[in-house]
Please model this.
Amino acid sequence: MQNIIRVDMSNLAVTKESEPDEYQLLGGRGLTSRIVSREVAPNCSPFDAESKIVFAPGLLTGSLAPCSGRLSVGAKSPLTGGIKESNVGGTAGQVMARASIKALIIEGKPSGKERYVLEISSTSVKLRPANDLAFKTNYEVGEFVASEYGDKTPYICVGPGAEHLLAVATVAVGDMEGRPTRHAGRGGMGAVLASKGIKAIVFTGTGRQKLPQDDQGFKDVVKEFAVDLVNTKKALTRFGTAVLVNVISENGAMPVNNFRHGTFDDVDRISGETLAKNCHDRGGKTGHGCYAGCVIKCSNIYHDISGNYLTSALEYETIVLLGANCGLRDLDQIAELDFICDNYGLDTMETGSALAVSMEGGMLEFGDFQGMKEMLHEMGRGTITGKLLGQGATVVGKTLGVGRIPAVKGQAMAAYDPRALKGTGTTYATSPMGGDHTAGNCLPGRTGLDDHKPEGQVEASLDAQILTVLCDNLGLCIFVGPVGSSLPFFTRLVSCYTGNRFTGEELMSLGKNILREEASFNEKAGISKYQNDVPKFFRTEELHSGLVFDVDSRELSAIFE
Amino acid sequence: MQNIIRVDMSNLAVTKESEPDEYQLLGGRGLTSRIVSREVAPNCSPFDAESKIVFAPGLLTGSLAPCSGRLSVGAKSPLTGGIKESNVGGTAGQVMARASIKALIIEGKPSGKERYVLEISSTSVKLRPANDLAFKTNYEVGEFVASEYGDKTPYICVGPGAEHLLAVATVAVGDMEGRPTRHAGRGGMGAVLASKGIKAIVFTGTGRQKLPQDDQGFKDVVKEFAVDLVNTKKALTRFGTAVLVNVISENGAMPVNNFRHGTFDDVDRISGETLAKNCHDRGGKTGHGCYAGCVIKCSNIYHDISGNYLTSALEYETIVLLGANCGLRDLDQIAELDFICDNYGLDTMETGSALAVSMEGGMLEFGDFQGMKEMLHEMGRGTITGKLLGQGATVVGKTLGVGRIPAVKGQAMAAYDPRALKGTGTTYATSPMGGDHTAGNCLPGRTGLDDHKPEGQVEASLDAQILTVLCDNLGLCIFVGPVGSSLPFFTRLVSCYTGNRFTGEELMSLGKNILREEASFNEKAGISKYQNDVPKFFRTEELHSGLVFDVDSRELSAIFE
Model:
């Protein structure tokens, strides 16, 4: 039996509740969305005392299931104003699950500007005053955790971006080396946590592995699934997600200069091959995992040209949105910006898109690396300009009078142009999360459809969204591939874990219900189904390939009906 | 027969269409909302080429009806993202109506940054290149018009705030002295006009008075209505709208320091009596009309202590939102800020509220007059800080992490606290226009209800909204009082004007349909009925009187059903 831990920051009270039966099948996103829907008023301000932030490891997080260490963070988003879940790797999810914590709910708000560290062991949950950590960067907090609690102690923390209440602020999680390089990046979850006065959550003790009801059956599936993943995900292990640089540019879906172009003329300088070479030549690493039990290991440790640590987990989305889409062509420059974002706790995607939009609005020139660095420091310092950029692409674009803002429901799109990758475009348009690839990415070749054509994309996106919400519910990394062929693995894992036999249809129906619950929260927050669309310019402005986004808007608004 | 003039700024083409029969009863807001609903895509960007801005004099504007000189300006709003109508006095509405123009639609967009003056006479409509007027202030444009076209030539223009595409940018209209002191202030209509490359619209020639079908009947009603208004609106004539300072503070509904308090301890220094005394003692004027035929004359000309012209039409909303709500206590200071706003073309209400919210967010201190002046100049210059403030209270508050943002659907509330004036609060919550008093103000004593109690406010607000939309349709100033007892005057005026007999119910039904059409546009723009509410803090944070806003939120979301 697992527990729900509730921390009320208004009176610093910690309470523990047993897991209700009805949450039996829920974990991760399914659980954060359920709790946010039930307990948070859709029309509250995300920073109100009555707003809450929920952490939930996936249903299988803490078990032996491969790639199952994800931790979901959910709240009403200061970026979109709707419900949000952002999930993250790193070492916190597993240790939290193994401390028998089904969900951690942080609610209320201190009356002043106090900061706290929440200390969680297998037997206790305590708040420790930590005002001296105010406005410390994530790497500084990581050092504090190492020196106070021991090297590689799992932790969650927020940087100064969150303390300035930026809507792009992340929740950082320590990686296998104890660095704050894993981020629940999207939707400003960090700002919500910071508004509660929590600077860090530290996990001492290791707890014990989650035991499935049918242990042997579970081990059999795990083994089979792991072998399948190792065999099919080799490119991800070798090149990381940057393997997509060539793929997406060839597909004509790579955003360049604020979505002006769909291909990049300098792909070799930012490709997965270049990234892997730099890592190996300079003493860094590819094939680096987020947590124990990851068999894909798509992460990396990236060193600078002198062989010194520069950043970790330089990913496709960062490379393109903070790089090519801002006119940068140098992987080392992008890596440096990635480090600064991680250190201040800024979502590289929303921040990159906001900077690209600011370039379109004349604040900076495309390709101005020094200017971008200065802007990131303004965000870290919380100047007026920094706070403006920290509201993300939509607010920056509105403020500068930019018509071409590549965002849906207030959230910037990921690094796939919806005109050329129409399944992912459909997910941007319709996901309750806003312009989000992690809500149902339809990568080239994945759906069996012609990505450049509108036919069938609504059904394909809906399938991908449901399978993805299942991954997010189970705590599986989406790189296991939320595709139809993984459903049997999901079904067998859940059946063995719970000891009850489930069908694929039953799991799909669970996923659909989670999506509907999220859409219903949004509706009551004033975000109607008519916001299920991409910005108009994607429908009228052609890519060089001649493509526009042409999925029927009536189908988009009716997708969850 | 009147005409619809269409100016396409993409190719500088002017076309003239005869008035369609179905527009027979429409004018002002009814007509701008109808045309925007029909011709503008709800999901377009307000600054797209396909966005349009519509000017329409009221149905009775240009006739002898008292106080009937209003001109409506409608578009998709860059402030709210929804449909917007903002109407204005000054001399342009009448001359436009008398030039047989039922509506002027400006559409398309020049490819570059060209500026034009649109010259309208009774016989021709022409575009004149005017790049040298770029970023000229409204008073400078007023001087240009006087020197080029003659003293007191009626005109419409936009200031630098509009050219920076600020969402608080106004459309200015010349007053009886030829000064740009009348503003269609709300919703950023100025930015939409500026985005089309139009810097000014100038009306040469006088045209001819609109002739009612039943001329004698019309004259009889006009006389009766005018006598009634002169007798009942004496306080407005004597003190201007500032007569409300004492009334509203006594009611406990005056916003002070970003809606922290409902009464002001220094009312005498900013009251209508003080304003009138300053005007008379210093060579200014009260009892000043917007246009010929106004019998209320609530405007004023305000001189500084040395007797030099400072500003005109210093109004209650400005005095409170740019004054008391920002912690100012000096009428001369407020008058100076009013002049600066008029000159740059900034809505004093949205700007005042944005400044108060910025004070709550720590950018300025409450009462910092010099700081406020500097911020207004930043807005006029279009700096990053100026552009941020120019997005209005909602964006400023979001950016600074302020939880207490007194706005609905992106538009700042007027100078009546919804907790103490619950009918007006209901109008803020439900009007398709956002937090707008001009959409149905329920002033103390007007509804016959206890303003401090929730009972009956939804019905009262709906009535006020329908009567107000009728005023806006007819071109009558809302100071004629959109109350049940004026309906017979409206009915008789319309019946005599059109030559067809209308009942009060028929007119009320017309008004209701206009409101529904606006709400329907908003719905398709993604603004759902669940946004029909005041911000949560008004429901939880008590005024000193103990009052909170407690009108049932389900009734609010269902008001137009």
